[in-house]
Amino acid sequence: MQLRGIFIFTKFSVNKQTLMTKIFLSIFLFLSFLGYSQENLPLIPIPKQIEFVNEFFELDKSTVILSQDSNSFEALFLKETIKLKTGLDLPIKSTYTKGNSIQLSIQIPDTIGFDREKYELSISKKGVQLLSFSNQGLFYGIQTFLQFIPFQKSDKVKTQGVSISDSPKFKWRGMHLDVSRHFFSIDFIKKYIDYIAMYKMNTFHWHLTDDQGWRIEIKKYPKLTEIGAWRDGSMVGHYNEQRFDTLRYSGFYTQEEIKEVVKYAQQRHVTIVPEIEMPGHALAALASYPEFSCTGGPFEVAKGWGVFEDVFCPKDETFVFLENILSEVIDLFPSKYIHIGGDESPKVRWKNCAHCQSLIKKEGLKDEHELQSYFIQRIEKFVNTKGRKIMGWDEILEGGLAPNAAVMSWRGTEGGIAAAKQKHFVVMSPGSHCYFDHYQGDPKNEPLAFGGYTPIEKVYAFNPIPNELSIEEAVYILGAQANVWTEYIETSNHVEYMIMPRMAALSEVVWGTANASDYKNFENRLIDHLDFYEKMGINYSKAIYEVTTAVSSGKNGVEFILKAVNPSGIRFTTDGSQPTNKAMIYTSPISITKSCTIKAAYFENEKQKSNSIEQTFNINKSSGKKITLEHQPHENYGIGGSFTLVDGMKGNPSKFGRDWLGFSGKDVVATIDLNKIETISKIKLNVLKSKGSWIYYPKEIEFLHSEDGNRYTSIKKFSEVEIENLKGNIEGIFKNTQAKYIKIIAKNLGVIPDGNPGAGSKAWLFIDEISVE
Ligand SMILES: [Zn+2]
């Protein structure tokens, strides 16, 4: 795969398919007035229809908020936010007064099945009129109006005259937060809900339980929080380092606190969907009540991250336990869906458990996957009796989907596609676009993250409806959400950094007005919007200013492409020195013909706005040459395609998302065409091991050479033991050999053997930079 033309943003960002996906957007632009054009309207998400009116409204201390219900939360919210932003303290009145007013009206719908989330907002010199069928619609109209008001103390605020008609495309517009790996205070949870509401999103997925901590008080089972909410230490640094501290770590929410948060969210029209993980990710529960495991324990609440083999045993007592927990959860949360997890549940304990094996026989199940399906279906039956529905991660498809279950597709979009085709509701949250625990900028300049690379333009290019679905099937896509797993996110400040501003991009995607082919329009609005983050003291990522890079193969080998908000602001050096405002200005792709280090940064008005980025190139006989792969890498770890392996850039082992190609269960068979016959005596490459992420060394690596591209002769072979001894830094030195073609075969470990993380699943094989000397 070659990255070329206008689709290049960075080596790992948008791919053609998502960019070309058609998203319909209707913005009626009649006049640009008061300095506003559609590009710098201070609105995110951009409404469905905007008409500019050639006048403006003046907000001052004589302005009145008119509301049929003067005690409505919406009117109070509007009043308080205007006060916070401008200092103006406006009265709320319920009877009509003449003059300067902001009028909130709810209309009785004349049809059933009306859109509660729709609103109409008109701003003119006479006043502001906001119309909706519900308080929710009013609330969204208020959020839009508030975005017109600058964050600045003032007696008089001029707002642009507009006429807006707006409603969202997707019903599920969600944000998730993992509070198990790290715990966050009630105050921050409320702030998080504020952010969700600010962007007119409507769902908060609260990941309350996991191996590393049980975070919700359950009255019937006090040990869940007495024991399960505590751990004797946490992992420090990246998983690969396997380092731990010994600090006691804890935190949980009382039922009173949860009631308070649920009410807070309801006022802001946000539904909280609680998640209680089962049958896997259950170690905190099993540490508290080991009798519900297969082995009886004892267990410890997990200190490290990863997937653990001890899971709930499907005994009758376990179901009673889980049903009692779910009953309390259901009483606390009024959401239609209860998320029951269902992901990453190893089968090794069930394989070796007499009870599990006899249950498989008794129920006529085929294997442990069907036993998982039995488990989920039994839980579903119970949840359905309470008038609720279950949702689970896409693994709940394995062994057969429960009859009424909805699926959250995280391992890509395939699970979501399969579920929609089976007429089950789906929420899309694929790792490729919706995992906000991934890096959003160059990992060198970012705080430690899980891995992966999901810059904001990639989030913006996401289309929740895959091309594979027909119009009838697409109806089952409820929407999308971003997931924030907190293994590497210890503080609320850091959570903000990971979601802002990516959440702004997602909000426009799920509102249905994102136009991926005009990312620049969004980016312009966002840059103005950043001022609001500054004023609010939100800790946001400045990766948007970062110089991003891409490589492609050009006439003379590797070409290095730099991009920034405004490319003419990029300055760079090739001698390893720091770029200053006197450094070379970037004008066109840099042709890399010899090994060097390039540093670049973005400047505005002579001032450096971004961190400087740095890229070292090791140019050798295979750099920039044609390379073909027999099997393609996984979509999440291979957007740069085969060229990644010969682009002169070596992958960083602790940040395996960016520079590596990842293959799930497949071998790497790569052929490099050196263009002419060369004398070679050394081949190097790197493979990764990170067991917790199910990444394993290949079981064999072989180098072959050929002069004609048909007959290949083996040069060197490395066994599993040799690969292990070399720690994945494979280097084969041999006597001078003539070759025009080089073939590299790295055999995937295949199915992960028992006793290892991810046992029974396909192993990942990660490889980077092949160099030939
Ligand atoms: Zn068992």
Automatic annotation (TrEMBL):
Its EC number(s): 3.2.1.52
Residue span, F5/8 type C domain: 643-748
GO biological process, one term: glycosaminoglycan metabolic process
Membrane recorded as keyword: no
Beta-hexosaminidase bacterial type N-terminal domain span: 42-166
Record InterPro entries: Beta_hexosaminidase_sua/sub, FA58C, Fn3_assoc_repeat, Galactose-bd-like_sf, GH, Glyco_hydro_20_cat, Hex-like_dom2, HEX_bac_N
Alphabetical UniProt keywords: Glycosidase, Hydrolase
Zinc keyword on record: no
GO MF, one example: beta-N-acetylhexosaminidase activity
Catalytic activity field: Hydrolysis of terminal non-reducing N-acetyl-D-hexosamine residues in N-acetyl-beta-D-hexosaminides
Domain Glycoside hydrolase family 20 catalytic: 170-512
GO CC term, one of those recorded: membrane
Catalytic residues (positions): 344 (proton donor)
Similarity field: Belongs to the glycosyl hydrolase 20 family.
PANTHER family: BETA-HEXOSAMINIDASE (PTHR22600), BETA-N-ACETYLHEXOSAMINIDASE (PTHR22600:SF57)
Protein name as annotated: beta-N-acetylhexosaminidase
Organism: Flavobacterium lacus
Lineage, top ranks: Bacteria, Pseudomonadati, Bacteroidota, Flavobacteriia, Flavobacteriales
